Amino acid sequence: MPTRRKVNSVRVVLLAVVCILIIAGLAGVFVVKKGLSSTGNGDKNIVFTIESGDALDQVVENLENENLISNATVTKLYAKASHNTNFVAGTFELNNGMSVKEILSYIQDSTKLKKDALILKVPEGKWAKEIAAEISNLYDGKFSSEEILNQWNDISYIQKLAKDYSFINVDDLNNSNYKVKLEGYLFPDTYYLGKEDSIDEITRIMLDRFEVMYKENKELFSKSHYSVQQVISLASVVQFEASSKEDMEMIAGIFHNRLEQGMKLQSSVTVCYALYDDFKDPKDCETNPEIDSPYNTYLHEGLPIGPILNPGDDAIKAVLAPKKTDYLFFAADIYNKLDGKVHYSKTYEEHQQICEKLGLNL
């Protein structure tokens, strides 16, 4: 016969198990409820596109990337349970005040399609002036490139933007030597614009996308000893120098090493931007290392004074979390004499030997 002490122990264990199950159940209910709620208060409209053939997983991933949902797993489960999986391909205008239920219902309704969307494609590495020209062409000259660039250079306009975007620091951008003050913040992506959109609305759509990236990497930005402007400046150089994610991480690490050791970056791509209107051929960047410009990292120590293009996600993340190595030099096999790869070295002597093999002039 079990003793009273053993019976009491069993009761305590059972009670503990019941309590745990109740707590777990309540926690689960909280997670589900939060996961089905809106991510904001409806203050941000987001143009959202479903490509033909996009399945549930892809649509949900894209919704999460746009910060329109907070829990992909809960959203998928709800979509399957409620049979909300037959989405319409096309472009919709959603906002961050919509619940998961409202979003899923909305993107299944073909009458909600944004039929007058203009598609603006901004690849990684584009200059602001190139983006301005593309916008001008897209709107059939409704805005001139000069008009767009003037707004992107207007410090009073940037002061207004700074009130809505925490990553914009007016003091950092208020530099008369900048080619374009918003260079670096026009985030690469495919945008679906309205025919009646203003320059301000178009600009904010790109800045909204930058903000998504910024929030996703907020912890890394806060841990960096560089300001946002400096991170984007270095990322723009990395973007110009490398084509793969792996090389971006390696080259970002090398630039960090050089900066920490007080070496000049000596990146020829900064010469490309220094040439600006006179830039015609990449070879010009190699043959003009003495051009007088605050962007030129052959003449000036540290980072260029500002971004030299608009970098993408991989380049920015590479600067925030670079590959740690002992390398100080790199050379890309642009003529494909060896293997087409980027070659790394720890000493200048090794670097010289590699460049000779690749047919590169130092």
Automatic annotation (TrEMBL):
According to its UniProt record, the EC number is 4.2.2.29
**UniProt keyword annotations, A-Z:** Cell membrane, Cell wall biogenesis/degradation, Lyase, Membrane, Transmembrane, Transmembrane helix
Q: Which GO terms describe its biological process?
A: cell wall organization; peptidoglycan biosynthetic process
Presence of keyword Transmembrane helix:
yes
Catalytically driven reaction(s): a peptidoglycan chain = a peptidoglycan chain with N-acetyl-1,6-anhydromuramyl-[peptide] at the reducing end + a peptidoglycan chain with N-acetylglucosamine at the non-reducing end
Q: Per the UniProt record, which residue ranges are transmembrane?
A: 12-32
Q: Where is this site: Important for catalytic activity?
A: 241
Task: Identify the main location.
Answer: membrane
Q: Does the keyword Lyase apply?
A: yes
InterPro entries in the record: MLTG-like
Q: Which NCBIfam families match?
A: endolytic transglycosylase MltG
Q: Give the protein's function.
A: Functions as a peptidoglycan terminase that cleaves nascent peptidoglycan strands endolytically to terminate their elongation.
PANTHER family xref list: ENDOLYTIC MUREIN TRANSGLYCOSYLASE
Q: What is this protein called?
A: Endolytic murein transglycosylase
Organism per entry: Holdemanella biformis DSM 3989
- Lineage of the source organism? Bacteria, Bacillati, Bacillota, Erysipelotrichia, Erysipelotrichales
